[in-house]
Amino acid sequence: MGAVTLILVLVFVLLLVMNVPIAVSIGIAAFVAIMAEGVDPSIMMATKMANGVNSFALLAIPFFILSGILMGKGGMARRLIDFAASLVGMFPGGLAYVNTLTCMLFGSISGSAAAAVSSVGGFMIPEMNRKGYNREFNVAVTTTAATTGLLIPPSNIMIVYSVAAGSVSIAAMFMAGVIPGIITGLFIMVVCGGFAFRYKYGAGERVPFKQTLLSFVNAFFSLLLIVIVIGGILKGVFTATEAAAIAVLYSFILTVVFYREIKLKDLPEILRQTGITTAVVMLLIGASSGMSWIMTMANIPQTVSQALVGMSDNPIVILLTINMLLLFVGTFMDMTPAVLIFTPIFLPVVQSLGMHPIHFGIMMIANLCIGLCTPPVGTCLFIGCGVGKTTIAKVTKTMLPFFLAMIMALMVITYIPKTSLWLPVKTGQLKAEEVEKTQQEWKQNFSKSPKLSE
Q1: Whether residue 187 has pLDDT greater than 60
Q2: CB-CB contact of 93 with 138 (8 Å)
Q3: Cβ of 92: how many Cβ atoms within 10 Å?
Q4: Which residues lie below 8 Å from residue 49, measured CB to CB, with a gap of 6+?
Q5: How far from chain centre, in Å, is Cα 373?
Q6: How far is the CA of 129 from the CAs of 122, 190, 317, 338, in angstroms?
Q7: pLDDT in tens, 374-431
Q8: Mean of the per-residue pLDDT values for the chain?
Q9: Which of 60, 61, 63 lies closest to 71 in space, CA to CA?
Q10: DSSP state, 255?
Q11: 130, 393 Cβ separation under 8 angstroms
């Protein structure tokens, strides 16, 4: 390990241990490492940070953040809960299924797992408590299910990955996340079914068709946002960035004019929250751009790549190792900096195995979603415990089966490329020839695997 690399790692880890904000830690570590490289750090960091956020694609992030806040505060969660209850509430343990399905729908529309925990959990957790469900189970369901919305489009973290990976289609990423998000949600529902069977959670009342239709009508305009955004992108009506602006306009009309859940006097505070969140994300992206440059200069991606390939020529082992490293990183680092830092390190490795960048992006996001539910930096876990009025220590044991379900879903996403690539090809966001070329290389590498040969 070179001196610059050692300085970069030590300063970064030391700042994290001192509880310095992650964006500041990244920026200072990069600044010190650039200085050690013999380059003027002030000019280089300023240049790299400016270039890092100077991307048209990143304009979508503040728009999607604003749209998500409007939807979160606009009464959407209650309408989605009623709709989900009419579909799955009649099964044993039905409220757990309702919770999961609502989080999937809400998270995909708002693009925020944290918003899904607070908005959906704010109603569902007390309701499940009242119906006799275990409090820690209720928090565990909400916390894990909320992360599926980061895989089901639109999703800000997919935009961040597309920028970090370079020349990766945002529209293709959006389509690639649909099936993995559904798979993860289904695995979580299986665990809910196991708990319902073990603890004899009762079934809800069967909802008449007329009431189901009414609940669908009430939720229709909220769900229509997904159709407008994704449909418009697929049809080429607008780009992903333009779609984000359309989402804001639609959300404003729906929540302020149509639902009337948000008053005009509430808008300044909503805009302030959007500005704060956007500033944090952009600072992370800018600081990570400086760190990415010094990591490239220090040959860190090449060193890690050689170490992984030298450790084993078995692609199963290599991908498992990468997943284990990302799972560890996710326990103490938020998704955005993790994606920005580790994408340029691991992407060349997996591409050498024939893994498509879109496939890797979905695998990375699915992996880091687990970190949102784990201490010590699990944002969703902290919010869920706060909403559910319990402690992390009490919830952790109940979370274990859900962790296992999410890891099993991750393994499916990792080793079955079609889960991520089939839909983008079918919708024309990826060329079939391009995907076929990478898949041939993927199959060849896996056919050489000693474990598969046995």
Answers
A1: yes
A2: no
A3: 15
A4: 27, 286, 287, 289, 290
A5: 12
A6: 12, 20, 43, 35
A7: 877 788 888 899 989 898 889 988 999 999 999 999 999 999 999 999 999 998 888 8
A8: 88
A9: 63
A10: I
A11: no
- Residues 319-336: pLDDT tens digits? 999 999 999 988 888 888
pLDDT at 450: 54
Task: List the alpha helices (DSSP H) in 260-314.
Answer: 267-297, 300-311
Classify residue 316 as exposed, middle or buried by CB count within 10 Å of its CB (0-12, 13-18, 19+).
Answer: middle
Tokens representing 160? 């961040």
Closest CA relative to residue 274, chosen from 40, 2, 51, 69: 69
Contact 188, 402 (CB under 8 A): yes
Question: Is-cis flag, bond preceding 417, omega within 30?
Answer: no
Phi, psi of 20 (to 5 degrees): -75, 140
- Per the listing, tokens 């200085």 go with 35
- For 263, the 3-state DSSP assignment is coil
Percent of the chain that is helix, strand, coil (3-state, to 5): 80, 0, 20
pTM as predicted: 0.89
Residue 201's pLDDT band (cuts 50, 70, 90): confident
The two tokens of residue 187 are 């695995």
Are 344 and 301 in contact, with CB atoms under 8 Å apart?
yes
List the Cα angle 337/382/191 in 5-degree steps: 95
The first and second tokens of residue 426, run together, are: 């079918």
**Whole-number Å distance between alpha carbons of 181 and 150:** 8
- List residues bridging with 92 in a β-sheet: 203
One-letter-per-residue 3-state SS of 387-399? HHCCCHHHHHHHH
